[in-house]
Structure formats: structure tokens, C-alpha cells
Amino acid sequence: MTRVALVTGAGTGIGAAIALRLARDGFAVGVNARTADDARPTVQAAEAAGGRAVALPGDVSDEDDVRRLVAECVDRLGGLDVAVNNAAVQEEAPFLDLTLEAWRRQLDTDLTGVFLVSREAARQMAARGGGVIVSISSVHEHRPWPGKAAYCTAKAGVGMLTACIGRELAPYGIRAVAVAPGAIATESNRRPDDDPELRAQVPARRMGRPEEVAALVAWLADEDAAYVTATRIVMDGGWEAYGPAV
Ligand code: NAD
């Protein structure tokens, strides 16, 4: 039977790469983005690769949107086996100037959005005998980043939420894992591989690629990873463990 995956924030960057990889691996994929127009390029790329995908527009920080889009995923694709929390926003502001609005925008999407999607997905999975929830966090779960207090705090929350979900939902056959990437070359975050700062900080001496994050998610989604839950996996070219502090 075709397995079904939902990927949030999948119109661009890492989310688009994950959706495409899962479609190539034979998943029917629900492509969430804020709007149907934003989701369309990924849906088309998945179809062009021979896969099946549908656009599931909605704001992950809105409870009604999340209920609707998860239900629509199940109705249109026939179930929900894997949910990938990828959507996030990141804003820069010195802490002394960080507004409550900016704090809320980031916490609402980057942490509450993960809670809402995980809960709705888990309800479906629990009723169907299990599933996998993968949340894209960041090395900044653990690594402070001046000017990004809200983003880092949200990502730290994603790490603990994942551990809690993994423990609590194991009896339902649900696994939960956080993937913590380092510097990944996307449209919105690209530096040349010969950037001196990058080469000094990252032992692998290059940025990671969205396809590499997607490959890790694909493995976690598979039965090969059946013993991996309630934990985080860092993919950062050695940056967190060995790189000098920024
Ligand atoms: P990106 O901005 O291309 O992707 C984020 C996507 O989420 C965008 O398409 C955006 O429109 C969507 N989104 C934002 N708010 C949303 C909402 N409320 N509802 C639905 N969709 C929403 O950036 P990316 O680099 O591909 O990041 C993807 C994930 O990877 C994020 O969770 C990010 O924190 C994480 N990450 C990225 C890097 C990196 O170096 N690129 C490193 C570590 C972690």
C-alpha cells in the first residue's frame, strides 16, 4: 500500500527537497505551503519525477488550518504515515530591541506550529497503528545565536517536544525524531563553499545540501530506523561538535 507523507513549508528550500525525495521514494506527498501557489512548484516537480503529490495550503500556526489540512491529507491521499515539520520563520533582532510581536511570530510558527501539526498527525497515526514524526530543528537548538533569541528558543522547544512525543507515543507505534541541520545551502541561505568563515567553522569545509537533509529524513521515515525515536540527529558537517563559537 502507498505510504503517505505530509511535509510542511514544502514550497521552498529543505522542505521542497524532502517532499521531492519522499515522492521519488514512492510516498504520496501532501505539500503544505502558506498558499496553493507556493506549493505548486513542488507538486509539479514531484509529479514530473513520477510521484503523486497534492497541495495542502495553510498556516501551521493556525489550529483550524492545521486540522483542515491534516484531514484533507488523509482524505485525498488515504492516510498519514509520516509527518515532517519543516515550516519555520527566522527574524534577526538584537535582544534589546526584540518586540513581543516578532517573538510571537517566530514561536507561533516554529514551535506552536510543530505542536499543532504533530498533535493532529499523531491522532491520525494512533488511530491507524503508528507513524513517524520528523521535525526539522537546527544546531541552534543548543547553540546560542546573537540576534536570534526567538528562533533558537523555538528550536530548543522543538527538541524537547520531540523527546516528549517520542516517549509518550511509543506505545501507539509512533516515533518522533528531530533533525538538526547546520548551514544548509538553500535559496534563502547560500554562501560559496570557499567562504573563509564557513571553512574555518565547519570541519566538512562546505555547506550541507537540502538533498542531504532529505536523505536523512527518508531514512528516518523507513522501517530501517524503527529503533530511532525521542532523540535528535545532527547533520552539520561537524560544526556543533568541533567548530569554534560564533
Ligand atoms: P525556507 O524559508 O526556504 O523554508 C521555510 C518554509 O516554511 C518557507 O517555504 C515558508 O514559506 C514556510 N512557512 C513559513 N511560515 C509558515 C507557516 N506559518 N505555515 C506554512 N508554511 C510556512 O528555509 P529553509 O532553509 O528551507 O528551512 C527549512 C527548515 O530548516 C526550517 O525549519 C529551518 O529552521 C530549518 N533549518 C534551516 C537551515 C539552513 O541553513 N537553511 C539550518 C538549520 C535549520
Mean pLDDT: 96
Tally of structural domains? 1
Structural Rg:
17 Å
Strand order of the largest sheet: 3-2-1-4-5-6-7
Task: Name the CATH homologous superfamily.
Answer: NAD(P)-binding Rossmann-like Domain
Number of helices: 8
Verbal overview:
This protein has helices spanning 13-24, 36-48, 63-77, 100-128, 149-169, 196-201, 210-221, 239-242, and strands at residues 4-7, 28-33, 52-57, 82-85, 131-136, 174-181, 231-235. It has one domain (4-242): NAD(P)-binding Rossmann-like Domain (Rossmann fold, 3-Layer(aba) Sandwich). A seven-stranded parallel beta sheet has the order 3-2-1-4-5-6-7, with helices on both faces. Helix 1 (13-24) crosses helix 7, helix 3 (63-77) packs parallel to helix 4 and helix 4 packs parallel to helix 5 (149-169). 46% of the residues lie in helices and 16% in strands. It is globular, with a radius of gyration of 17 Å. The longest helix is centred in the middle third of the chain and has 29 residues, at 100-128. The mean pLDDT is 96.
